[in-house]
Write a structure and sequence with these properties.
This protein is an alpha+beta fold. Helices cover about 15% and strands about 30% of the residues. A hairpin with a 3-residue loop joins strand 17 and strand 18.
Length: about 650
């Protein structure tokens, strides 16, 4: 009984789902094997008990008691042997890294994954893992929440029907949340849709924040071997009907492009503000996401909106891979140091599949989208839905230790170090995550989020009246109040992610984006907003026009003598904030001047002012005029 208590997340007999009971396999412990299944006597030839697995799923989690690991260091290699009847035994090797430090945390911010696949993703190339185990391992990696985004094109691959499978997933998520709300699951979907050119792209679908289980299955089951009949606009119409939302998944980079097998492509920008297809990317590589002759998948361009209200942003950071190998699927860490196994090796920053390469290409396009938003908003102050946000997601398919999603049949592709928790999005929820994650969804809808691979940076614009403006917000500040505003920075890091190496603040306007380096620190730091924008825009920011600020944090971890263990010499970790949009209102009004010797007009003033003097007893020697933010202006005065 004590041994059986170590088992969790056991499969049960379910013919509809194709799973088989672990308990009916009669697991026991012995001095020879950790687990022996005794349900079948195997006819006594050989006299070894077995379990005959006849269904697709036979799974469980076994918990190793902590006392068994007390004398181990924080890097543990594990060998798992599968003893198969009348077949050669199979071996799988894992390398587990334990940390003495918790994940960096910040009050009222909750860390989660916006893009994760459970075993409701089932196809010839990709399979996830059981939902209850996902919640358990997500919590173990210190995630607070996770959105299940299983492929819409897979819901017709199993079970009774697509809608029944969708309901089954919803019921599973609801039951797990009711049992334990400390780690919240949200049912979403990675939907296959056609872009403006008729090619397949992916969108991350999230439900109505007020009713997280209200969204029905809105796909058609296609987008894999057969093209979907649903395009982006049709998908957005469905989201409108159910007050749901989406982010474009892995949208623009060269290696974001979906396979030709599924008629895949990327989201199309279609904007002359960015280099067209075939041109060099501003960061590196070649542009593939801006066909000017094809319609935009991003902009709606109505009189009142720039973006659809139901397309909130982009999953710019997807699948964090730093090491990779094209063989040794079951032993990429080469834990036995076998000379015949190549195992993991570092990915170059110039390799298009590497996560930084893909992120930077996506960020290039995102900055162009931000510019377009500023241009349109500054031309039309009544414009709505002109802000666009970014998020990060692991895109892990199970992958509790490493990822073999990209290795098809053990023959084509690679395995890499992506896994649950490698990438996360932190959301600001001052009232907590909410029932079934409703506050998480609201934060994603409003861009109250930052992207992280470990460390955290947060920016808050605040004034003397304790008004706070967070990432994703916009604000108009009167010029006369400018010196009363400050930018507060919070930086949280632990030794697991090395040392802080760089903190950058970016400022963007209609023309470009610039940056300044901030002092390297952890903890809190405050700088006067007026001082900051003078550093960002020394030639002065354009008053009465929106601009934005956003921050980036980088840490570096050097592995030194452990480089052979980690399979890399060092690693960099980052955090990126969503923008804060700001407009400085220079049309300021002052109290009427009652001095009988001086009048100022017009009031309020904008481009010019007139000073008129009356009945002066002495000549005026000098006139100095200062703006409300302390700048001195040239006065054309002659005595």
């Amino acid at each position: 009984m004590q041994f059986l208590s170590l088992f969790k997340h056991k499969s049960i007999d379910d013919a509809t789902w194709g799973s088989q009971s672990v308990d009916n396999g009669l697991p026991t412990s012995s001095s020879i094997h950790t687990i022996t299944f005794t349900s079948d006597t195997n006819w006594g030839i050989p006299p070894t008990p077995i379990v005959d697995i006849t269904n697709r799923y036979f799974y469980f989690t076994i918990v190793i008691p902590p006392e068994y690991l007390q004398n181990f260091n924080d890097i543990i290699d594990v060998e798992v042997t599968f003893g198969l009847d009348w077949e050669t035994d199979q071996y799988v090797y894992l390398r587990i890294f334990r940390s003495d430090y918790p994940f960096p945390v910040l009050t009222n911010w909750y860390r989660g994954d916006t893009h994760y696949h459970t075993f409701f993703t089932q196809n010839l190339a990709e399979n996830g893992l059981p939902v209850d185990a996902v919640k358990y391992y997500g919590s173990a990696t210190e995630l607070n929440w996770l959105i299940t985004t299983d492929h819409s094109c897979d819901f017709d691959n199993y079970g009774v029907s697509m809608s029944d499978n969708w309901s089954r997933l919803g019921n599973t998520v609801a039951n797990l949340n009711s049992q334990d709300s400390s780690m919240v699951l949200i049912r979403g979907m990675e939907m296959s849709v056609n872009n403006s050119a008729g090619n397949t792209v992916h969108a991350l679908i999230y439900p109505n924040s007020s009713a997280p289980f209200s969204l029905p299955y809105i796909g058609d089951g296609n987008g894999d071997t057969q093209s979907s009949s649903v395009n982006i606009n049709m998908m957005l119409d469905s989201l409108k009907k159910y007050n749901a939302m989406c982010y474009a998944a892995h949208p623009f980079a060269e290696d974001d492009k979906l396979s030709v097998i599924v008629n895949g492509s990327v989201w199309n920008l279609s904007d002359t503000i960015f280099p067209s297809n075939g041109s060099p990317h501003p960061s590196m590589g070649t542009v593939i996401s801006n066909d000017i002759n094809t319609g935009s998948d991003i902009f709606s361009y109505t009189d009142s909106t720039l973006f659809s209200p139901y397309l909130c942003g982009l999953e710019l950071w997807n699948l964090r891979n730093t090491i990779s190998c094209s063989s040794s699927e079951n032993n990429p860490w080469n834990v036995m140091y076998d000379s015949g196994i190549s195992g993991f090796s570092e990915l170059s920053y110039t390799d298009p599949i590497m996560h930084d390469y893909r992120f930077n290409q996506n960020l290039d396009v995102y900055k162009a989208i931000l510019r377009r938003g500023l241009i349109q908003k500054n031309q039309n102050d009544l414009l709505q839905y002109w802000k666009f946000y970014m998020e990060a997601g692991s895109d892990a398919h199970g992958s509790f230790n490493y990822s073999n999603t990209d290795l098809t049949g053990g023959l084509i592709g690679n395995v890499n170090d992506n896994a649950i928790g490698r990438l996360s999005t932190l959301v600001y929820c001052p009232q907590g995550m909410g029932l079934n994650g409703k506050n998480i969804l609201q934060a994603l809808q409003n861009g109250h989020s930052v992207l992280s691979s470990g460390p955290i940076i947060n920016t808050v614009l605040t004034n003397n009246s304790n008004n706070n403006v967070f990432s994703g917000d916009d604000i108009i500040i009167n010029l006369s109040d400018l010196t009363n505003w400050f930018v507060n920075f919070d930086v949280v890091n632990t030794p697991e992610f090395g040392s802080v190496s760089e903190i950058l603040l970016f400022g963007g306007n209609e023309n470009n984006e610039v940056s300044v380096s901030l002092p390297v620190f952890t903890g809190t730091f405050q700088i006067n907003f007026n001082t900051l924008i003078q550093q960002l825009f020394p030639d002065s920011v354009q008053n009465n026009k929106y601009f934005y600020i956003r921050a980036q944090l980088t840490t570096i971890k050097n592995y030194g003598s452990l480089s052979n263990i980690y399979k890399k010499n060092y690693d960099t970790f980052n955090c990126y904030t969503n923008p804060i949009w700001i407009k400085i209102n220079s049309i300021t009004k002052i109290n009427e001047n009652n001095n009988t010797k001086l009048t100022i007009s017009p009031n309020p003033a904008n481009d010019f002012i007139n000073l008129t003097f009356y009945n002066l007893l002495n000549n005026i020697c000098k006139i100095q005029i200062f703006s409300a933010d302390g700048k001195e202006f040239i006065c054309d005065y002659k005595n």
